[in-house]
Design goal:
The complex is a heterodimer of chains A (277) and B (400). Chain A is an alpha+beta fold and 277 residues long. Chain A has helices at 6-13, 63-76, 81-84, 89-95, 104-121, 143-153, 158-165, 175-186, 203-224, 253-268, and strands at residues 26-32, 37-46, 51-60, 134-136, 141-142, 227-235, 238-245, 273-276. In chain A, α4 packs across α5 (104-121), α6 (143-153) packs across α8 (175-186) and α9 packs antiparallel against α10. The chains are: A alpha+beta (277), B alpha/beta (400).
Chain lengths: 277, 400
């Protein structure tokens, strides 16, 4: 059971400002039903004063998601857009007397919905740049979001990133990437790199190493989700594999391959390419 | 406010008769069963009595009963013993919907070079015999299939699987933790080699489990030390809990003799009323082959943790397969394995009754829950009218 504050419970049991404002000036949306939480925030803005005169929410999610959304509406009402745009996820969490670490992503969701609404009101289109680097495919979290959340909340570990953004909380394949991002953000060698000897491997050594990593690390992970993989061949730097079981039709298949590729590049120190048969 | 406890697959109330039977072993009868003096010796006699009571519940011989620390220990021990007693056989077969005591132990064995095949289940949570046949070979050390699933209550065809495996000489373990006391078990007729039980699921205390090991099945102990349990599980006996489990098994046997139709009728009444009163709700799992006490219902467009906490306000205890209640960000592995849409998994609620659940309690849930669902749905940005929109989003997400 989660340790919720009385304020979270109050805002969950009797949420304020549920629904949609009539003729909203902007609607901010984040999340999806697949991920387990989603928030739709509608706001009414006084064009003269640029003040948010009304705000309502609709939320699909757990108790803290509902409470965070309701708190957000209370926080923004009466504020100018300028003031509202300065609201952070910490403000939302503080308003509620704090949230459990594992639930901080609910407050981040609130902040994002607000950003989306304000951007839409101002006519700023948030263009999903094709080069936007999605790190966590399971929860659709971009590198930019991970960096931003890490800096704003002083997050130093992957676990914290998962609590705040969900990134890394699904299949776990992106954990090494998140570690790398954190390392870059903080430029501190806190996360220990596995000591890999990058000496020149013989062909046989390299093949044995690749086989070993696939057998010991990759396959058990895939098998745990009902999938599997066969090593078909190694031709130069090309590692040919066949996906089996649940992996065959898995929409995350290409991501899995990418993850394996990176791991193999990491251990061999060579420019490995993983391809399916 | 009176607690309405409908989470009996998580744990059960220790019955007053059980507590009463246990108490003397904390106060007067504190001897060690292994001692030479009669003060300790009398404890030994009482442990053997409890062993017979447990054996009686599942149709076993007393010497086939090994007391362990919990259901997880029983599961771990069974798999470990199977691979240790079958050197050279490096394969295991289980299902994708097992308890984590099996799944995570198989992952642990994978690091040591063992390969596990996880049998898939269909949308009703059933496994296919063809898939099982395909998975086994002469390298298979053990097959472990749960007797019934904890989340959906789906009962697996253990007898059929057992016959098939026995004909091929393959060791068979079943995790029957959710079954004991809910449907009769008779290992004389059931071709299983090992079977796990847990005390706290049948009104005995926590911290006591059982591994049934059929006579003649080779066994290697997991916990090594003294000669307790005929050398099959070291450690001074958890006497009071063993006595309590014995008593609980005796009581369970009596309850089973009365039949579980009443419990099933209450469960069905709850299920029927919820489906009638809440649109866009579905029952998860095979209703033709299910424990009499369990129902898993998914309510679309709302999230399970929110439902549970609202129910909690009325003193009603249930559980959910949603991501927010799992302790991780991933929702229930069981419902995912069944291919239940994520939307439905997030809104799943499991009610598990006991023989002591009353009609008044069930009626209270029927009265309280539908308005909760209606209210939470009124908060949700999703709903039947917005369903099309949401489907597009999923398709969009799949496309890239």
């Amino acid at each position: 059971m989660w340790e919720y504050t009385d304020k979270v419970k109050e805002y969950f049991l009797k949420p304020r400002n549920v629904g949609e404002v009539e003729n909203p000036d902007a609607v901010g949306e984040v999340g999806s039903i697949v991920c387990g939480d989603a928030l739709k925030l509608s706001i009414k803005v006084d064009r003269e004063t640029n003040r948010i005169v009304d705000a309502k929410f609709q939320t699909f999610g757990c108790a803290s998601a509902i409470a965070s959304s309701s708190a957000l509406t209370e926080l923004v009402k009466g504020k100018t857009l300028e003031e509202a745009s300065k609201i952070t996820n910490q403000d939302i969490a503080e308003y509620l007397g704090g949230l459990p670490d594992e639930k901080m992503h609910c407050s981040v969701m609130g902040m994002e919905a607000l950003e989306d609404a304000i951007n839409k009101y101002r006519g700023v289109k948030k263009i999903l740049r094709p080069e936007e680097n999605i790190i966590c495919k399971c929860f659709d979290v971009s590198e930019e979001k991970i960096r931003k959340t890490a800096v704003e909340n002083s997050l130093k570990t992957v676990e914290e990133i998962t609590h705040y953004t969900k990134a890394g909380g699904g299949c776990g394949m992106c954990v090494p990437e998140i570690e790398q991002i954190l390392k870059e953000v903080w430029s501190v060698q806190e996360i220990k790199e596995r000591p890999v000897e990058k000496k020149k491997l013989t062909n046989l050594q390299r093949m044995a190493l690749i086989q070993d990593v696939l057998e010991r690390e990759i396959r058990p992970k895939l098998q745990a989700d009902g999938g599997d993989l066969d090593l078909i061949d190694i031709e130069g730097n090309r590692v040919i594999v066949g996906l089996r079981g649940m992996c065959v039709d898995c929409p995350m298949g290409s991501m899995t391959i990418k993850g394996i590729e990176e791991r193999l590049r990491d251990v061999t120190g060579q420019d490995i390419a993983v391809v399916t048969e | 406010m009176k607690t309405i406890y409908l989470d009996n697959n998580a744990t059960t109330r220790v019955l007053p008769e059980v507590v009463e039977a246990m108490l003397p072993f904390y106060t007067d009868l504190y001897g060690n069963a292994s001692s030479m003096h009669s003060f300790g010796g009398q404890v030994h006699g009482r442990i053997e009595q409890a062993r017979a009571q447990v054996a009686e519940l599942i149709g076993a011989e007393p010497e086939e009963i090994v007391f362990t620390g919990c259901g997880s220990e029983s599961d771990n021990t069974a798999l470990m013993s199977a691979v240790e007693c079958n050197p050279g056989k490096r394969r295991l077969v289980t299902t994708r919907v097992e308890h984590s005591a099996i799944l995570n132990f198989c992952k642990h064995l994978a690091v040591k070079g063992f390969h596990t095949t996880y049998l898939p289940v269909d949308t009703l949570g059933r496994i296919s015999m063809d898939a099982l046949l395909e998975a086994i070979d002469d390298q298979t050390a053990v097959v472990s299939v749960m007797y019934a699933n904890n989340e959906t209550g789906v009962v697996f065809p253990i007898e059929e699987i057992g016959k098939l495996l026995r004909a091929r000489g393959i060791l068979f373990h079943t995790d029957a933790v959710q079954v004991a006391g809910k449907i009769p078990i008779d290992v004389k007729k059931l071709p299983v080699d090992m079977l796990s039980l847990s005390g706290h699921k049948l009104h005995a205390p926590k911290g006591i489990g059982v591994l049934y090991v059929r006579k003649g099945v080779r066994f290697c102990p997991y916990l090594i030390g003294g000669h307790q349990e005929r050398g099959r599980r070291a450690g001074t006996e958890n006497v009071a809990s063993i006595i309590g489990l014995g008593k609980a098994c005796e009581l369970a046997k009596k309850e089973l003799a009365k039949g579980t139709a009443g419990m099933a009728a209450l469960r069905d009444r709850l299920e029927k009323a919820l489906l009638e009163r809440c649109p866009d709700a579905v029952v998860n799992g095979d209703r033709e082959s299910r424990l009499p006490n369990t129902t898993s219902v998914s309510f679309e467009y709302v999230e399970g943790e929110a439902i549970l906490l609202r129910l909690d306000e009325f003193g009603i205890c249930a559980s959910s397969g949603s991501a927010c209640t799992s302790g991780s960000l991933q929702p229930s592995h069981v419902l995912r394995a069944m291919g239940i849409p994520y939307t439905a998994i997030h809104g799943s609620v499991r009610f598990s009754l006991s023989s002591y659940t009353t009609p008044t309690e069930i009626d209270r849930v029927i009265e309280v829950l539908p308005p909760i669902i209606r209210e939470l749905r009124s908060y949700s940005p999703f709903g039947r009218d917005k369903f099309e929109q949401y489907l597009c989003r999923i398709d969009g997400a799949r496309a890239d």
